[in-house]
Amino acid sequence: MKTIPVETTINGDSAEFLCHADESLLDVLRDRLGMTGSKEGCGTGDCGACSVMLNGRVMCSCLVLGVETQGAEIETIEGMAKGEELHPLQRVFLEEAALQCGVCTPGILVAAKALLEKNPDPTDTEVRYWLAGNLCRCTGYDKIIKAVQTAAAEMRSA
Amino acid sequence: MAFDAQAERKFNIVGTRVARPDGIDKVTGKAAYGADISAPGMLHGRILRSPHAHARIVSIDTSAAEALAGVKAVVTGADLAQPEDEGFADVAINCLARDKVLYDGHAVAAVAAKSKSIAKQAIRLIKVDYEILPHVTDVDAAMKPDAPVIQEGRALETVPAGMSQNVTTHCQFGHGDLDAGFAKADKIVERSFKTAATHQGYIEPQACMASLGSDGRGEVWCCTQGQYMVRANCAAVLGVEESQLRITSSEIGGGFGGKTSTFIEPVALALSRKSGKPVKVVMTRDEVLKATGPTISSSMDIKIGMTKDGRITAARGELRYSGGAYPNATVDMGAQAAFAAYDLEAVETVGWNAMTNRPKEIPYRAPGAPTSIYAVESVVDELCQELGLDPLDVRLMNAARKGTLSSYGPTFNDIGLVATLEAAKAHPHYAAPLGPNQGRGLSCGFWFNFGGNTCVSLNINDDGTVGVVEGNPDIGGSRASISMMAAEELGVPYDKVRTVIADTSSLGFNDITDGSRVTFAVGLATIEAARAAINEMCRRVAKIWDIDADAVIWEDGCAKPAGPNAGIHPPMTLAEIAAIAGNTGGPIAGHHEVNADGAGVSFGVHLCDTEVDPETGATKILRYTVFQDAGKAVHPDYVEGQMQGGAVQGIGWALNEEYIYGTDGRLQNAGFLDYRVPVASDLPDIETVILEIPNPGHPYGVRGVGETPIVPPLAAVSNAVSRAAGVRMTELPMSPPRLLKAMTG
C-alpha cells in the first residue's frame, strides 16, 4: 500500500507525515510521530482515551483517518502544558488525586479543557454528561468531577 | 511484625495528602504504559483466535501466512514448551491452544510481521481445521453428569465420585448445629441467586514488547501486576531459565486483579526467538474481553434463620462458581467470605467450581467475595423487611467482633466492623427522606487481605536523599505511600525520598500486586529497611563519637546521644552522616526481606439510595456512601479513591455489566459499547468515611483497602432496588429489561 503525504498543525507546530489510507489518526500520532500520550483503550470510539482536539472539536482520534486531517489543527495532551507550566486542569488533577492509573487521564484532560473553553461555569451534571464518553475504571469519577470544578473556578477568577 | 503500641503516635507525613511522584508524567502524557515503547527493528505481533466455544484442532496450516511478504515468524502451541506443573501447563495452553480450543477467543496461532496491517492480513491466511464439539457456558448446566466435558481428569480429590468431570473443586466451611439453629428461628428465608461474569475493564489493554535470543536470554516490557510472575510463567512456557529473563513492568493502565496472569508475553517471546527481532503485541479491546480474565459467574442458594428480634440462629450457603475452562479456587474464597461479617452459632458454606467454555477466570478485586456476600446480604435484608427490623440494627446485633469465631475458622483479632456500622448509623445519609419509587439498601463487605513475599532495598544517597527500590507495580498510587512511610520512619521530608519499581534482575522476588498487599507488606518491609538503615547510621555515628552504638538514638531525622551518659554531641542529620559515609565504612543502605503475615482483615459498609423507573426498569443511583476501616490511611486521597472506584465497579456489576453468551457459545458483547461499564453521567458523588482501627500486624496499623470496596455494592444496590421496586431481586445484573420484567410480573 502506498503512503500518502499529509500536512497538519499539531500543538501549534506544523507537522508533515506519510501514512496509509487505512491508518487512524491515533496510529499516526502514536506510531509515526511518537506522540504516545493519546491512548488506545478500545479502537471503537467507546472509551475516549484517545481524545484530541481536531479543528476545535473533541474527537476520538481512533475514529479519524490520518489522511482526513490534511490542513487540520490538532491539539493533543502533549500540547496542554506550556513548558514547565501545567494547565490548571493538569495541576488540579494532581492536587486533588483525580487519577489513579492515569491511562484515561490524557483523554479526560483534553475533553475537560474543551468543556471549560465552551462553558466556563458548568454544573456538575453538565461536567458528568460532557465526560460521559471518557471511561475511567479506577476513580468512580468523583474526584475527576470535583477537580474539573476546582480548575473551572480557578480559571474563572484568573 | 507488631503494631507500634505507642500511645497516639503522632505522624508527620503519614495521613497527609502529598503529590504523587508519577503525577506530572501522567497528566502530560509522558508516562510510558505497555504499548508506549518501541525498539529499532521491532515487529508487530498478532494472535489468531478460535471462533468456536469448544472444538478439537485437527490441523493448522500456516504456510500461506509464512509466504506473505513482510511476515517474519508464525508460531503455534507446538512452539511452546509443555510444562509438567499443572499451573504452568494451563498458562501455556491458554497462551496458545494445543489439541482443543476451550472458548470463543482462545488463542491458536500468532504471527510477527513488519507492520500491524501485514500481521492482521497474515492471521487471516492461517487455515485451522476444527472439529466442533458440544459446549456449555452455564455453571448449573456444566455440573450435570451428561454435560460436555471441558477438560478431563482435573477434579481435586475433594470432589465426590460420580459428578461431572467439569466439577473440579469442592470445599466446606463452618461450625455449630445447623438443625438446632434453624429450629430456633422465627423466620427462615431461603433463596437462589445468579450473577453474570463481569470483566475487570481496565482501560489499558494488555501490551508487551519482548525480545528473546537463541541463547535463551530475553527482555520483556509489559503492563502487569507482577513482573516476577511474568518471569516465572515465561520461563516455564518458553523452557528457559528465570535468571536469563529480565522483565520490566511498565506504568499500568488499571489491573484490578486482571493483570495477575500472562497471556501475550510468552507468545511475543516465542515470535521474537523465531524471527530474531523484538516483537510488540498489543491486544485489542475485543481480545481483552474475549480472552482475558473475566471473573466467575455464579449460582447460589442461601438459607438464613432469624428470631423475631433479629438474631440470626443459623445460616447455610451453597455456591456454584464457574471460573471458565480451567480449574480454580475462587469459590473457596467466596465460601470463606460469605458469612464473615456475622457472629454465628451455626453456619455452613459449601462451594463447587465447575469448568465451562468461557475464558480462564482471572482474579477481580476480592475474587469470590462480592457474589457470595451479595447473596447473603440480600437474604439478611429480606429477613429484616419481613420482620420489620432496622437492617443496620440487625447487622450490629449480629456483627463479628474481636473474639468472634469466624465462619471460615480463624478467631478475629481487632476488627472494625462494629465501628463501621455505627458510623453508617450516625451518618445523615441513613436518616435522609426517600421519595416515591425510591429505596435504600445497605450491605456489609469483607476481604481477607494478604501479605506475602516482599523485598525492599532502601539506599541513603550521598546528598542526604533516599532511594527506595521495591518490586510491586503501582496501580493506585502506592509509590507515594511507600515514600511517605520511608520518610516518616527516617524523619526526612517526603520529597527527599524517591521510590522506584525494580525489574526482575534488580531486586529479589516479590509476590504480585494483589490481595491489597502493597501498602501493607511493601510498607512494612520499607519501614523495616528504614530501621536497618537507621541502625547502621547510629553505628557509624557511635564510631565518630567513640561511644557504644546503643548509646545513639534516632530522632527527628538525626542521630543523637541517648542521654547524658552518652556525652555531649551535637545531633548529626541524615545528610551529614550520608556525606561522610565513605569515611565511616562505605555506602549506607537498609534491606528487608519477608513473607509478611498479619495483613488484617478489612470490613466496609455501603449505603445506597436508588430510584427505579416503573415504565422502563431503569435504575438511577441517587446517593451513595462508603464506610470502611483502613487501619491507618497512609494517603487518604488514594484510600478514598479505592473506596470510590471499587464502589462504582460494584455498581456496574449490579446494574449493567454482564458476559452474554449466545446459544452458539460465543460472546455477544465483546466491546465497551455493549459491555457497559458505568460512565460519569450514571453516577452521583460517592461519599466516603474512613475509619481507622489499627491493624495489630503492621507497625503503623495499616490494612489493605483496595478490594473490600467492590464487595458491598452488589447487595447494597440490589437491596435498594428491591425495596424501591417492591419486588425481591435475585439475579445480577439488574438491567432495565430484567427489572421491568420483575416489576410487571
Summarize the structure.
The complex is a heterodimer of chains A (158) and B (745). Chain A has 158 residues and is α+β, with helices and mostly antiparallel strands. Chain A is 34% helix and 16% strand.
Can you describe what's shown?
The complex is a heterodimer of chains A (158) and B (745). Chain A starts with a strand and ends with a helix. Chain A has helices spanning 25-32, 88-95, 105-118, 124-130, 142-157, and strands spanning 4-10, 13-19, 51-54, 57-60, 73-75. Chain A is 34% helix and 16% strand. Chain A has two domains: 4-79, Ubiquitin-like (UB roll) (Roll); 88-157, [2Fe-2S]-binding domain (DNA polymerase, domain 1), CATH 1.10.150.120. Chain A has a five-stranded mixed sheet, with helices on both faces. In chain A, β1 (4-10) and β2 (13-19) form a beta hairpin. The longest helix of chain B is centred in the last third of the chain and has 28 residues, at 518-545. In chain B, 28% of the residues lie in helices and 24% in strands. Chain B has 745 residues and is an alpha+beta fold. Chain B has 21 helices and 27 strands. Classes of the chains: A alpha+beta (158), B alpha+beta (745). The interface between A and B is large, with 61 and 59 residues.
